[in-house]
Design goal:
Layout: E1 2-7, H1 9-19, E2 29-38, E3 42-52, E4 58-61, E5 66-68, H2 70-83, E6 86-92, H3 103-119, E7 125-131, E8 134-140, E9 148-149, E10 152-155, E11 158-160
Parallel strand pairs: 1-3, 1-10, 6-7
Antiparallel strand pairs: 2-3, 2-6, 4-5, 7-8, 8-9, 10-11
């Protein structure tokens, strides 16, 4: 099944300014709330709201690691539940390497995604990681333990393609 995330250009530019600011040395994070449209061959996520996380939303915010507070996580889940929306998590990687989820990211997703599926009535979940050189993405559309690739991030009609580096070796 193909999967796409549609986002308006102004929202995407604001997201990039937040996730990859020029003179900040800590990873940043944000969430989209999205409604999904599904056909036999495709799932499309349409962003309906954005939440840019700030310093008070984290218990730890380093140059290579983030950890949200329990209150932030609970608030995101409640808002997504109230909106009947899927959650899309995003964070930045600051190093020079191509965009891919780290081992710590993978371990966190293995724990987080099944919990989110349970809490959000089996709605699809997505995670993206952005670096200055590009992005990678994983989608859990039909199974909370087996991700698939995002086929494209559609910004004002232009399709951006993820690195798809993170699918390899997923356990």
């Amino acid at each position: 099944m193909k999967s796409y995330l549609a986002i308006e250009g102004v929202v995407f530019r604001n997201l990039m300014a937040h996730l990859l600011p020029r003179h900040v040395r800590q990873e940043q994070a944000a969430f989209f709330f999205a409604h999904t449209e599904r056909t036999v061959r495709e799932i499309r996520f349409e962003v309906v709201e954005t939440r840019l996380l700030g310093p008070d939303d984290f218990t730890s915010q380093e140059d290579d690691y983030l950890a949200m507070t329990d209150a932030t996580r609970a608030g995101l889940i409640k808002q997504a539940h109230d909106m009947a929306a899927s959650l899309i998590e995003m964070h930045s990687h600051l190093g020079p390497k191509p965009a891919a989820f780290s081992l710590a990211d993978r371990e966190g997703l293995n724990e987080t995604v099944p919990h989110m599926w349970w809490r959000l009535d089996r709605r699809p979940y997505m995670a993206l990681v952005f670096a200055r050189s590009g992005f990678d993405a994983l989608v859990w559309a039909d199974n909370p333990t087996v991700p698939q690739a995002l086929d494209g991030l559609v910004v004002d009609g232009q399709t951006l393609t993820p690195t798809n580096s993170s699918l390899w070796g997923w356990q």
